[in-house]
Amino acid sequence: MVFMSIAQVMNDDMIGEEVELRGWVYRHRVIGGKVFVVLRDSTGIIQCVIDSSKVSPQVYDTAVNLGIESSIAVKGIVRKEPRAPGGYELHVKDLRVYGISRDFPIKGGEGIEYLLDNRHLWIRSRKLTNVMKIKHTVLKAGREWLLENGWWEVTPPILTASACEGGATLFEVKYFDKKAYLSQSAQLYLEVLIYSLEKVWSLTPSFRAEQSRTRRHLAEYWHLELEAAWYNMYDIMNVAEELTAYIIKRVLEENERELKLLNRDTSILEKSTKTPYPRITYDEAIDRLKKKGLAISWGEDLGADEERVLTQDFETPFFITHFPKEIKSFYMKTDPKRPEVVLGFDLLAPEGYGEIIGGSEREDNYDKLYQRILDEGYDPSDYKWYLDLRKYGSVPHSGFGLGIERLVMWIAGLDHIRDAIPFPRYRGRIYP
Ligand code: ATP
Ligand code: MG
């Protein structure tokens, strides 16, 4: 007999059919001559009833002694049962154990640190399974959109040569007899590639030695980055919102079940499938914050707290543009009309989540870029190759980076980014 998945048997057409299922014991109870096993596989859960009067004494005995997370195969008849989770159950005729499980370390009610120390087992939880399924759709949908819209996928390096921008958050590694660094962003390499491919993207891990532990920073995260020749800031903002809206739409289509199991209120997600998203300038953001009584002045960066307050005004993601150049990276192009601000933007997720995308138009003038590098105190010789791009056929261009776990965290309604990645890394934790 061919094994079926739990999702396949959970429908009226299967009532009365004999099927065989494989999976893990999720819950286990013995009540008056019957064993109730909730079986879990990658597609869902189903209650299986092993009745002492209907199976052999050996099968019943095996069923009684099953430990949580034992792997088993069961053969039986599908029945409708409104009281069972999902509305169906399996009346078992035969049962076979693949791998026993005794005293599974997670019994419910454990604290966060304990669960993180047992991540390799806790990962089987329904919560993390549902999040991983949503993340799968996020990655798939992102790729779909990019393929349909003519973007080339490229593979930038992870080991990088120079301690450029953001030295404080760089991870250093031994590279033969030299030092190298783990990439924080593929951007500079993507910029190299637009001179032949024009519209490029990559999905890579980015590494940031974030010193403080927050609920939205990881030391290793998945970074979707886009870079395009001929695009100005507004062109690339349009791309950022179309891509985001498409991903949300696909998750709503494909993960209705997972969102429900996570108790996610999807009304804001529904609204976020429509573009354009609202746009405010940094100046307006500061005004709004001041009106709400926050002590912030022009020139200061917006932290998580400021972002959270701003998100109260919006019911979809929204852009903040034209940041002071002092708080943004050297490669962002300054606004020709207002040289104190850059043509840079962040896209913030609503409901308190904050930044999910950061992007900009890039400085394409050799002399201006050279000066910005000096002003930041960097060594122009480290950037010779990057400056060369402005020497040989420079073009206006723009790009952005989207943090996959930030987006998943918001879409799934998680309260911490660690649950948006199977094996979270942040200061103080790298396990397993
Ligand atoms: P933040 O201000 O939130 O620390 P950033 O401005 O340093 O982020 P960028 O350099 O603009 O981040 O990176 C692009 C995107 O990568 C961000 O919009 C965010 O979605 C994501 N990102 C950045 N740092 C992290 C991190 N430590 N963990 C997870 N995602 C991150
Ligand atoms: Mg940013």
Notes on the protein architecture:
The protein is of the alpha+beta class and 432 residues long. 30% of the residues lie in helices and 29% in strands. It has two domains: 6-99, Beta Barrel (OB fold (Dihydrolipoamide Acetyltransferase, E2P)); 119-420, BirA Bifunctional Protein, domain 2 (2-Layer Sandwich), CATH 3.30.930. β1, α1 (6-9) and β2 form a beta-alpha-beta unit. α5 crosses α14. The radius of gyration is 26 Å and the shape is elongated. The protein binds adenosine-5'-triphosphate (ATP) and magnesium ion (MG). Adenosine-5'-triphosphate binds next to β12, β18, β19 and α14. Magnesium ion binds next to β18.
Summarize the structure.
By secondary structure, the protein is of the alpha+beta class. The chain is 30% helix and 29% strand. The mean pLDDT is 97.
Main attributes of the structure:
2 domains; binds adenosine-5'-triphosphate; 29% strand; binds magnesium ion; alpha+beta; BirA Bifunctional Protein, domain 2; single chain; 21 strands; 5-stranded mixed β-barrel; 8-stranded mixed β-sheet; OB fold (Dihydrolipoamide Acetyltransferase, E2P); 432 residues
